[in-house]
Structure formats: structure tokens, C-alpha cells
Amino acid sequence: MAKERIKKDSEEINNYKHNGDDFIVDIYEIGNYQIQICIKGPDDSPYKSYLFFLNFQFSNEYPQIPPQVTFMNKIFHPNINILGYIYLSILKDDWRSDYTIYTILMKIKQLLKEPDADNSFFPEATSLYLKKKLEQNFEFEKKAKDWAQKYAIFN
């Protein structure tokens, strides 16, 4: 069942991509239970103009169990740790079997635009992000852009 669902979800992503969703650049099948997706940083974020790769690792129980999703590029973000693991509630306790890969991608897009400071996964990034919100400090954006320039692909 997992393979069929992954295939169906991949087709859904390709439909959105071909209908003008420019957040999703490409999707690559790596193996039976693994895909990689190239995304473009959202326009209203410090990641604008950069491409990032996400790795989706599925169990044979997908969609009953969420995939493990990681960034393959380093990214300076409060909810993504140095190893690329993402803190996103729908990948943990709030998972529902009717969620698709596209649902996850849209949640990641939202997270890139609006980090969740209450669920920090990278303390340094969270500290700078909170400072930005309180003091109109731009250190977070600068460091996020610096990391994007260093570890992501300029588009």
C-alpha cells in the first residue's frame, strides 16, 4: 500500500508543479521508499532565490505513519536542526493518514516563512529570530541568507 500511495502523492506534486506552483522545483525517486524533492525558498523569507533539497524516507506503513523528512542542505532556521531534522507537528503527534506529501511541503513552506519559536530545534537560530521579533534586529535574516548562500543552490 505504501508504494502505491507514494506514487499517487508524487503524481499530485507533479500536477501542482505543472500548474504553476513554483515552490516545488523537481521530484526524484531514489528507491522504493525514498524520494527527494527540490524546493525554492519562499519569496517572503530569507531563503528567497535559493534551492533546497528535502529527503523523504517512508516506512512500509505509510500513510499510517508519517515519513521522516530532512533537509539535505544545512539551513539556519529555528525549527530545523544542524542535521536537517525538522520539527513540524504534522510529522509527529498531529499526523493524519489523509495528509499527503504535498500537505507536508506546504507546511514546510509556511514554516520557512514563519518559524515556530515555541518549538525550537536550533537554539541559536531561535534566539536570533526572537530578537528580530522584539527589537527589529536583522541578524537572523543575515545569518539565514549567509547559510543559504553557503549551503544551498542560488536560483
Q: What would you say this structure looks like, in words?
A:
- The chain has 155 residues and is an alpha+beta fold.
- The model has no long low-confidence stretch (mean pLDDT 95).
- A hairpin with a 2-residue loop joins strand 1 (24-31) and strand 2 (34-40).
- The chain is globular.
- Helices cover 36% and strands 19% of the residues.
- It contains 4 helices and 5 strands, in the order H-E-E-E-E-H-H-H-E.
- Strands 1, 2, 3, 4 and 5 form a 5-stranded antiparallel beta sheet that branches.
- It has helices at residues 2-18, 101-113, 123-135, 139-151, and strands spanning 24-31, 34-40, 50-57, 68-71, 153-154.
Give a concise summary:
With 155 residues, the chain is an alpha+beta fold.
- Biggest sheet, in brief? 5 strands, antiparallel
- What is the overall pLDDT average? 95
Strand content: 15-25%
Order of helices and strands: HEEEEHHHE
Helix content: 25-40%
Helix-and-strand structural type: alpha+beta
The number of distinct helices, counting runs of at least 4 residues, comes to 4
Overall, the morphology is globular
Strands, helices and their partners?
Elements: H1 2-18, E1 24-31, E2 34-40, E3 50-57, E4 68-71, H2 101-113, H3 123-135, H4 139-151, E5 153-154
Antiparallel strand pairs: 1-2, 2-3, 3-4, 3-5
Helix pairs in contact: 3-4
Question: What keywords describe this structure?
Answer:
155 residues; alpha+beta; 5-stranded antiparallel sheet; 4 helices; 19% strand; globular
